[in-house]
Specification:
single chain, about 450 residues, mainly alpha, 3-stranded antiparallel beta sheet, 19 helices, 7 strands
């Protein structure tokens, strides 16, 4: 799969170095061209190359003498002493062994342990991660059958995703218990941090990433993975922090799919199936918090293609074309919501949300902000036909018609929300016109 190996600025212009494979040399491409053709690769590169320190490549497991001292304290449940020793021994040269890492993770969520000790355990694991990288966490989660039962952790689950689902479900069960909710959130935060750091370190060798090893073997049957991150999180009341963690984890899976290690179509189809099982408000909550603009517009395109397109007369060939600003304007802005098992007000509100969100996510995916001569400018990958749509103000013209159509609808509170979404779309359309006109 193609990937970006570098980003450069020369004479005020932004370029990416695009490699088709590991063996081929990178070809310099202008940012505008990359955003036109490979927006998902640009998106992944920008996420994976946020500032990150260089980790030591010489880190080793702590010497046995250190390990024995700590192990004795852990066995006798002298957690304060054990954590003090871990804190003093751990540095860029040494990291704790697997058993100690696992024990610290167990301490984080143990309700019988003082919350100060829970938090200290979390802080030490964070220190391990940010001083030695992900190497200490390589084989922490193991669900394979072993002759040695100590190799399996955590016990009682047949997969990592059953384990994750249980933790998210525990948050719902403990929603009124702030202390235990905090413990579970710290625990999940630690896991997500490990995956994110590991992915940044191994971004050209995703096949060895910790997360990929935990995804189902076929990497096409992703139901249990998506169920643990969507159904168990968005189908009930749960803290916003949990939603953010779920979306961060899902974002890493999306990056793996863009790199060709997970079947992208299977991921998209399974995700679409599961979000359609959610109540409309929870489905909208999922899409609002989804971190990938490129994946968001792909999901919403599927939803809008399921709407009523019988109104489309002249531009039918566009229905089967790739997503573009032209397709959004001439097809989707003229589509009609299906009510199916929804009331008309809910169907209209959801449909207008789809329209607003697909416009916003598509434009966000096709643009980058670049500092140029002390001023932030927008670099975009819109093609000539899309530029014509913007120049002719077709989006705003159609939005005026939609506003008049909406005025005639009796929708209660949902009418105000729908009108606000149309106003937001109008503001987005005007903003697009501004940065296109500035070229």
């Amino acid at each position: 799969m193609a990937y970006i190996s570098d980003r450069k600025e020369e004479e005020g212009n932004l370029y990416f170095l695009l490699c088709e494979t590991e063996e081929t040399e990178g070809v310099r491409k202008e940012a505008e061209e990359m955003l036109k053709v490979y927006p998902e690769i640009v998106e992944s590169y920008e996420k994976l190359n946020k500032s990150i320190k260089t980790f030591s490549t010489n880190s080793k497991i702590m010497p046995n003498t250190y390990q024995s001292l700590i192990e004795n304290c852990l066995d006798e449940e002298h957690y304060t002493a054990a954590l003090d020793l871990l804190d003093s021994f751990q540095n860029e040269q040494f990291y704790p062994p697997k058993l100690h890492i696992r024990k610290m993770m167990e301490i984080i969520v143990n309700p019988k342990v003082d919350k100060d000790i829970n938090f200290k355990s979390y802080k030490i694991l964070q220190h391990v991660l940010y001083t030695t990288g992900s190497i200490a966490f390589e084989n922490i989660w193991n669900f394979e059958n072993h002759s040695d039962p100590e190799e399996v952790w955590p016990v009682g689950y047949d997969s990592f995703w059953a384990f994750i689902k249980d933790k998210f479900n525990s948050l719902t069960q403990n929603i009124d218990d702030n202390d235990q909710s905090t413990r579970i959130l710290l625990f999940l935060e630690q896991i997500v941090n490990v995956f994110e750091i590991d992915m940044r370190i191994k971004q050209r060798k995703f096949f060895s990433s910790i997360l990929l090893r935990l995804v189902t073997r076929s990497r096409t049957n992703l139901r249990i993975v998506i169920d643990s991150l969507i159904t168990s999180v968005f189908s009930k009341e749960i803290p916003m922090e949990a939603i953010r963690l779920s979306q961060r984890l899902l974002d890493q899976i999306i990056i793996l799919s863009y790199a060709g290690h997970i079947c992208r179509d299977s991921l998209k189809n399974e995700m679409y199936l599961q979000i359609n099982l959610l109540e409309p408000s929870r489905m909208i909550s999922f899409l609002q918090t989804l971190l990938s603009n490129t994946f968001k517009y792909q999901l919403i395109e599927k939803a809008l293609l399921d709407s009523d397109l019988s109104n489309i007369k002249k531009e039918k060939k566009l229905i089967l074309s790739s997503l573009s600003l032209v397709k959004i304007t001439k097809i989707f802005l003229y589509s009609i919501p299906y009510t199916r098992n929804l009331t008309e007000p809910v169907a209209i509100w959801r449909h207008i949300f789809f329209l607003s969100s697909i416009l916003q996510s598509y434009v966000n995916a096709k643009t980058l902000r670049q500092e140029k001569q002390g001023k932030v400018v927008i670099v975009h990958g819109l093609d000539d036909e899309e530029m014509d749509v913007v120049a002719d103000d077709l989006i705003s013209k159609r939005l005026k018609e939609l506003k008049k159509w909406l005025k005639q609808k009796d929708m209660g509170d949902l009418k105000d929300r729908s009108e606000l979404l149309l106003e937001m779309m109008d503001a987005d359309a005007k903003q697009i016109k501004i940065f296109v006109d500035e070229e």
